[in-house]
Write a structure and sequence with these properties.
412 residues, alpha/beta, 8-stranded parallel sheet, 18% helix, 7 helices
Length: 412
């Protein structure tokens, strides 16, 4: 068996019976690693060597008699160094390639967070984490093609420059992801977060102000998020999450100050509760299962064109009546070419302008009479009396229960 790490360009010795060095080998939970023959301390020492080698690989200090590998390493280890050494370290941007970062505990004297906080920037490239967070608020950070095996907490950080201008790019999160910001950060995240990432479990934001766009996706494939929750939040930047593939999405007690875009997605269940959408709301060609909107205010244009509601395959219990209850639309709303497989309820909505229902399909007898009247009146207001009369007939059928089994209303 080779005694050299199997990771390309790594010449360190393997750790114990693994095929990788202590930096690159697999890590486990904290209790397991703590008992594993000093792997955490060995990792800490190896990371000091790694950062030091990186700092002096391409750079030559102007004063090598003061700033050198030995004085640099000593500063990382002991936290003591000359002003020149400290300044040199504070300007160091380290690229961590394929390193497996273990769980950590702040009380440990070998907590590697102490090292990361001494450098200017950290580029985590194809790294793996069993750690639950990397709290480096004053360090410029960028996570590229990383994998997170345990629950992960998003913390405030500066942004290391990258093409897509995000904190996480092409990353995979195997467990729950959530935001947690201490009082010193005023519960604010002010960097763009995700580009083409996938979430096997839930992604949650709670009681946080999001100053920048949460998503900046560039991939044409569906973006996988098992469950997405946004609760008690203020979103200042535009929120664009197209081609979302999600089992559940909840937005509650929040405010979106800019554009909200949720196009061409597949969402099994969505709940929009007590939330204000101040900018344009665009859900073009998205397929929903259960759709429930309660006590929301839409201040700008709302688009559900070519969307499908209760559209899950087979006899799925989430395929229910689509409900807009105590919802206020202050501008124009577009339902053109949309399909409601289990009907639609607009009885308790406030509509400032007549919506566009041209070519909609209602394929169920669940739609109440008041909603049918709203649809009919919308056609009357634009002079489309043919469509209006179709919904007048539909209303009559609905009054006389038992006549309507399945109905498609579409312009000829």
């Amino acid at each position: 068996m080779s005694q050299i790490c199997s990771i390309d360009d790594c010449t360190r010795e393997v750790f114990q019976s693994t095929t990788e060095c202590v930096l690159h080998c697999k890590k486990n939970d904290y209790s397991h690693d703590f008992q594993n023959n000093g792997i955490l301390r060995t990792f800490y020492d190896a990371l000091i060597e790694y950062i030091t080698e990186s700092a002096f690989e391409w750079k030559k200090p102007d004063n090598p008699e003061i700033v050198n590998a030995e004085s640099f390493k000593n500063y990382l280890q002991e936290g003591v160094g000359s002003d020149e050494v400290v300044n040199f370290c504070n300007n160091e941007v380290t690229v961590f390639n394929f390193i497996f970062f273990p769980c950590r505990e702040s009380r440990d004297h070998f907590d590697y967070l102490k090292l990361l906080r001494k450098i200017k920037g950290a580029h985590f490239n194809y790294c793996k984490f069993t750690a639950h967070s990397i709290e480096i608020p004053k360090v410029e950070a960028f996570f590229q093609d990383c994998e997170f095996f345990q629950w992960w907490t998003i913390t405030q950080s500066k942004l290391l420059g990258n093409v897509n201008n995000v904190l996480y790019q092409n990353c995979t999160f195997r467990e729950d992801v959530s935001s947690h910001l201490g009082d010193e950060h005023s519960s604010t995240l002010d960097v763009p977060l995700f580009n083409n990432c996938s979430f096997d479990k839930s992604l949650s934001f709670e009681s946080v102000i999001l100053k920048k766009p949460v998503f900046n996706n560039t991939d044409d494939d569906l973006i996988k998020i098992h469950k997405l929750r946004i609760e008690n939040c203020e979103i200042d930047g535009k929120f664009v999450l197209n081609k979302l593939n999600a089992e559940y999405m909840l937005i509650e007690n929040s405010e979106f100050k800019a554009k909200f875009e949720l196009k061409e997605g597949l969402i099994d269940e969505i709940e929009l509760i007590n939330t204000n959408f101040n900018g344009l709301f665009d859900s073009y060609s998205t397929e929903y299962g259960r759709f429930y909107c309660f006590k929301c205010i839409f201040s700008d244009f709302v688009g559900f064109e070519k969307s499908k509601f209760a559209a899950l395959q087979g006899d799925n219990e989430l395929n229910q009546l689509s409900i807009f209850r105590y919802v206020t639309f202050l501008s124009f709303t577009n339902f053109r070419n949309s399909t409601f497989f289990q009907g639609i309820d607009l009885e308790n909505t406030n509509l400032k302008e007549a919506p566009n229902f041209l070519n909609i399909e209602v394929l169920s007898n669940n739609t109440n009479r008041e909603t049918l009247r709203i649809i009919k009146d919308s056609f009357d207001k634009i002079g489309n009396h043919i469509e209006a009369n179709k919904f007048l007939f539909l209303k009559w059928l609905n009054i006389n229960k038992g006549y309507l089994i399945s109905l498609s209303i579409k312009r000829n």
